């Protein structure tokens, strides 16, 4: 594709934040955007913001975002001249790229041949070797017999990895630390690779246990020009999924950095690469060596950090190169300024083994002044059908320490209601001394938190301030609390300080809020007495907009405070020195209602913690189970969740079957508790 290609309308074969990002790139060049969407995404922001939108199928990705024919039909129906795949879904599917070409459309990305070649890990490593790029020792031969693989495993020695040739995201990968487990590892990796990718081929590779993940952004045009846009570090990972990325990669020897960048350009030139691509490496800091890992033939999730330090719009250049334009920059013209950090914001609960969170976002209040690439807004529904990443927070500063500080400050001002996020966990990673000292590596999360990680809980002072914020929120504007709330009306005429009670989810006894003064604002004094007797007193306290302010012991304070209604209680999001915390509080009315309804569910009933698809039911009626035994396996957001028995007992009823789609809180298994049997 060396000539000029003309198109004015681009179909975006993706969803969420990357669809919105590509829409911005299209608007910058005066191109129209076409959104394709599933039934579940009908009200999503990326659909509303597109110039044209077409529904292509049901919520399941196979019925929509992976449906090649439906996407091509939408392109024809809307008169689209080009297709941008984004990342994920079909972005590295060579068959899709070829189908777009065959339909007479422009595929905004590399050639189908380049995608296919780099999509095979075996072929990609062979291409890297041919281009003089170092690779990890291992076996990548065509002989896939058990005997040959085991022979090569003995030669290689432990530890080593068995990896799927067509794999990605850690699927089809097994670590072998003892040769006695090699046969089982090979068999299970093959089976997973066949099921996930339709290709059982595997290869063996030496395992570098404390390596960092460093990658180089490359760009090529259709005229043979290739350059790099610097490097990134993506070593903070969980299950081979990146959590935090930064550019440039910190603490690299400059000579090795230069070698890595040059090797990446050589490889891209050798395969005739065009568009954006990323060459990924493992960097062994102990040996001061780097090894080719793979090449991603698409735009990366972490591309914004490269944009931040270079000032180059990667999506714009993808579009321009797809039109046949020539790269106008020489390598010496690429600026590399400052340091950037990207934090992936996901709907999951890290304190509960990263359990996916689903539901409706009732509050979305990101910090101002920061780049946020987001796929959601207030009112958005977070579905179990798709990846849990909702947005990306990007900061840029003159140095790494400044970018980290900005990221922490932004997290501390980020408030979301209705769906739990991983922000507190990401804050803990950014604050960790090992991250600051470059001791982190791709397998290091267990070392960072050897005793596990727990969600920070509000301190006594914070819980008291949260109760004050709720108290003031429930007071009508311009009114004194003792004139508007029942408990105050009884005491104000007698000249006594009024009292109101708020119950937290973790305490049987309430927080008692007492007050005096003319009303919210100047002159108002509120005291919050905790169940343990601790008292926090604030003077001149008021809640204006979403900010709680006043004075404690003569020292002024001002904190972000969002009060939102949740089922059966109020949730106060409060900015604290330890980050943003959420305190759930019940009023007297909420407390009476909970007692009247008997709470939510009994210990003898297993319910779905989120919407999802039932993958397995591991018990039958009459089975005796222990507390903690897995009863049902639920699939949500591409993850399998094992649901344990809440109590020991006998299974009496089963309300689901494999393949069923269930709603959040739906009953799954009924038990007769052990004490009754």
Automatic annotation (TrEMBL):
<keyword id="KW-0092">Biotin</keyword>
<dbReference type="InterPro" id="IPR011761">
    <property type="entry name" value="ATP-grasp"/>
</dbReference>
<feature type="domain" description="ATP-grasp">
    <location>
        <begin position="125"/>
        <end position="323"/>
    </location>
</feature>
<dbReference type="InterPro" id="IPR011054">
    <property type="entry name" value="Rudment_hybrid_motif"/>
</dbReference>
<feature type="domain" description="Lipoyl-binding">
    <location>
        <begin position="597"/>
        <end position="672"/>
    </location>
</feature>
<dbReference type="InterPro" id="IPR011053">
    <property type="entry name" value="Single_hybrid_motif"/>
</dbReference>
<dbReference type="GO" id="GO:0016874">
    <property type="term" value="F:ligase activity"/>
</dbReference>
<dbReference type="Pfam" id="PF00289">
    <property type="entry name" value="Biotin_carb_N"/>
</dbReference>
<dbReference type="InterPro" id="IPR005482">
    <property type="entry name" value="Biotin_COase_C"/>
</dbReference>
<dbReference type="InterPro" id="IPR005479">
    <property type="entry name" value="CPAse_ATP-bd"/>
</dbReference>
<dbReference type="InterPro" id="IPR000089">
    <property type="entry name" value="Biotin_lipoyl"/>
</dbReference>
<dbReference type="Pfam" id="PF02786">
    <property type="entry name" value="CPSase_L_D2"/>
</dbReference>
<dbReference type="GO" id="GO:0005524">
    <property type="term" value="F:ATP binding"/>
</dbReference>
<dbReference type="GO" id="GO:0046872">
    <property type="term" value="F:metal ion binding"/>
</dbReference>
<dbReference type="InterPro" id="IPR050856">
    <property type="entry name" value="Biotin_carboxylase_complex"/>
</dbReference>
<dbReference type="InterPro" id="IPR016185">
    <property type="entry name" value="PreATP-grasp_dom_sf"/>
</dbReference>
<dbReference type="Pfam" id="PF00364">
    <property type="entry name" value="Biotin_lipoyl"/>
</dbReference>
<dbReference type="InterPro" id="IPR011764">
    <property type="entry name" value="Biotin_carboxylation_dom"/>
</dbReference>
<dbReference type="InterPro" id="IPR005481">
    <property type="entry name" value="BC-like_N"/>
</dbReference>
<protein>
    <submittedName>
        <fullName>Biotin/lipoyl-binding protein</fullName>
    </submittedName>
</protein>
<keyword id="KW-0547">Nucleotide-binding</keyword>
<feature type="domain" description="Biotin carboxylation">
    <location>
        <begin position="6"/>
        <end position="450"/>
    </location>
</feature>
<keyword id="KW-0436">Ligase</keyword>
<dbReference type="Pfam" id="PF02785">
    <property type="entry name" value="Biotin_carb_C"/>
</dbReference>
<dbReference type="InterPro" id="IPR001882">
    <property type="entry name" value="Biotin_BS"/>
</dbReference>
<keyword id="KW-0067">ATP-binding</keyword>
């Amino acid at each position: 594709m060396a000539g000029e290609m003309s198109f004015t309308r681009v179909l975006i074969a993706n969803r969420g934040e990357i669809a919105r990002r590509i829409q911005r790139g299209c608007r910058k060049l005066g191109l129209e955007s076409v959104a394709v969407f599933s039934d579940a995404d009908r009200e999503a922001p990326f659909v509303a913001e597109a110039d044209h939108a077409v529904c292509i199928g049901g919520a399941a990705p196979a019925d929509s975002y992976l449906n090649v024919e439906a996407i091509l039909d939408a392109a024809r129906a809307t008169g689209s001249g080009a297709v941008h795949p984004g990342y994920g879904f079909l972005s590295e599917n060579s068959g899709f790229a070829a189908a777009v070409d065959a339909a007479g459309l422009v595929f905004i990305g590399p050639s189908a041949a380049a995608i296919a070649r780099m999509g095979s890990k075996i072929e990609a490593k062979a291409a890297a070797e041919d281009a003089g790029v170092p690779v990890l020792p291992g076996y990548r031969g065509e002989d896939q017999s058990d005997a040959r693989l085991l022979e090569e495993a003995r030669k290689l020695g432990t530890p080593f990895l068995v990896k799927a040739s067509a794999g990605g995201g850690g699927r089809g990968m097994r670590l072998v630390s003892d040769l006695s487990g090699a046969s089982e590892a090979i068999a299970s990796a093959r089976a997973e690779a066949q099921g996930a990718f339709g290709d059982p081929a595997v290869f063996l590779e030496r395992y570098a246990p404390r390596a960092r993940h460093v990658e180089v952004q490359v760009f090529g045009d259709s005229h043979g020009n290739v350059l790099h846009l610097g490097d990134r570090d993506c070593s903070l990972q969980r299950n081979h999924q990146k959590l935090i990325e930064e550019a440039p990669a910190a603490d690299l020897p400059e000579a090795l950095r230069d070698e890595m960048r040059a090797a990446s350009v050589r490889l891209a030139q050798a395969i005739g690469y065009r568009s954006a691509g990323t060459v990924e490496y493992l960097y062994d800091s102990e040996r001061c060596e780097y090894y080719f890992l793979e090449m991603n033939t698409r735009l990366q999730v972490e591309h914004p950090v490269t944009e931040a330090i270079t000032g180059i719009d990667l999506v714009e250049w993808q579009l321009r190169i797809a039109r046949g334009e020539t790269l106008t920059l020489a390598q010496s013209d690429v600026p590399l300024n400052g340091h950037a950090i990207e934090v992936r914001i996901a709907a999951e609960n890290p304190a509960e083994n990263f359990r996916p969170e689903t539901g409706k976002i009732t509050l979305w209040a990101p910090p101002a002044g920061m780049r946020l690439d987001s796929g959601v807004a207030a009112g958005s529904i977070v579905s179990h059908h798709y990846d849990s990443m909702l947005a990306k927070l990007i900061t840029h500063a003159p140095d790494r320490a400044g970018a980290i500080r900005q990221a922490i400050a932004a997290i501390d001002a980020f408030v979301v209601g209705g769906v739990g996020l991983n922000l507190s966990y990401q804050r803990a990673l950014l604050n960790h001394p090992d991250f600051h000292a470059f001791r982190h590596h791709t397998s290091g999360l267990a070392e960072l938190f050897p005793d596990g990680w727990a969600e920070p809980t509000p301190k006594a002072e914070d819980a008291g301030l949260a109760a004050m914020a709720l108290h003031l929120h429930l007071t009508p504007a311009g009114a004194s609390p003792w004139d508007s709330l029942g408990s105050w009306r009884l005491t104000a005429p007698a000249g006594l300080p009024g009292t109101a009670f708020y119950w937290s989810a973790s305490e049987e006894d309430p927080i008692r809020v007492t007050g005096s003064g003319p009303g919210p604002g100047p002159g108002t004094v509120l005291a919050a007495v905790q169940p343990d007797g601790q008292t926090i007193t604030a003077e001149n306290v008021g809640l204006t907009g979403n900010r709680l302010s006043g004075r404690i012991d003569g020292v002024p304070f001002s904190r972000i405070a969002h009060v939102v209604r949740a089922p059966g209680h109020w949730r106060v999001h409060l900015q604290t020195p330890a980050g943003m915390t959420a305190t759930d509080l019940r009023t007297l009315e909420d407390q009476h209602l909970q007692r009247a309804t008997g709470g939510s569910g009994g210990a003898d009933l297993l319910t779905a913690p989120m919407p999802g698809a039932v993958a397995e039911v591991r018990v039958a009626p009459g089975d005796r189970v222990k507390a903690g035994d897995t009863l049902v396996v639920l699939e949500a957001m591409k993850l399998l969740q094992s649901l344990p028995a809440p109590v020991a007992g006998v299974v009496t009823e089963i309300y689901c079957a494999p393949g069923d789609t269930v709603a959040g809180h739906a009953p799954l298994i009924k038990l007769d508790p052990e004490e009754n049997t």
